[in-house]
Amino acid sequence: MTGMVALDEDYHVHSDFSDGISTIDENVIVARQRGLRTLCLVDHVRAGTTWVPDFVSAVWPLRALAGIHILAGVEAKILDRAGRLDLPDGIDGVDVVLIADHQFPGEAGPVDPRAMGAALAAGQATAPEVISCLVEATAHAVQRVASAAPQSASAAPRPLIAHLFSVLPKMGLDESQVPDPLLGMLAERARSAGALVEVNEKWGCPSARTLRAFQQAGVALVASTDSHDCAAIGSYVEVRRILAEAAADGTSP
Question: For residue range 133-183, what is the model confidence (pLDDT) as tens digits?
């Protein structure tokens, strides 16, 4: 464990149910070999996805394994400023909904980051406007997941903000441009919703500054590889770098 983030966990591991190359069983085998305490198996969904019940059924028997806590998660992109998610109706048995900025969540729907970058370069949008929209969309999405009524006797899924701000550099922007008040607002919304925030190995985000804001607000931080191949499960280089930077600044997330 490094400060408040445990490195014997991986909250973002894909399988061949979506775009991963490893099976669920292969992911679990590697996680156990590496001594992970928690593993969240995650796959990408859209509104029309129909295989979530099969995914949950495949994960469910693994919960009985000794020595490791197995969770089922789905990852959905934020669609617009109102925080709508590209999420199917039938997600009974899912423990975690990963909220992802795969595209820019515009006023009228998702926008390709390259197109938004071009709009910024052409002066058709400003960085403050785009950043404000992204932060508000993320906050609304967190609240939507947290306030959704359970679809069955099982508990409602917990929101997890995935690779926060990874879309910014794709638009030519930087995380340092997010104003402190907006960052504080998002952190407070995440805290009140009981959301998790991942430190993402694949995208090397969010920054140490962002982690400090969430930690100070009392938000739980978790480590994730965003693995699409079981070989990468639980292996952290960028996560350790971000945590070391945070520690050097006087905080240990």
Answer: 999 999 999 999 999 867 665 678 999 999 999 999 999 999 999 999 999
Q: Alpha-carbon torsion 165, 106, 128, 135, what sign?
A: negative
- Residue in this structure with the two tokens 């990874």, named with its chain if needed: 166
The structure's pTM equals 0.95
**Residue type at 241?**
R
The encoded tokens of residue 186 equal 């998002």
Phi, psi dihedrals of residue 240, rounded to the nearest 5°: -65, -40
Q: Are 163 and 104 in contact (CB under 8 A)?
A: no
d(CA 175, CA 43): 26
Position 1 confidence tier, pLDDT thresholds 50, 70, 90:
very low
Whether 197 contacts 214, CB under 8 Å: yes
**Which tokens in the block code for residue 106?**
């515009």
Please give the order of strands across the beta sheet that includes 38-44.
9-13, 38-44, 69-77, 96-100, 158-161, 196-200, 220-224
C-alpha torsion sign, points 119, 104, 187, 227: negative
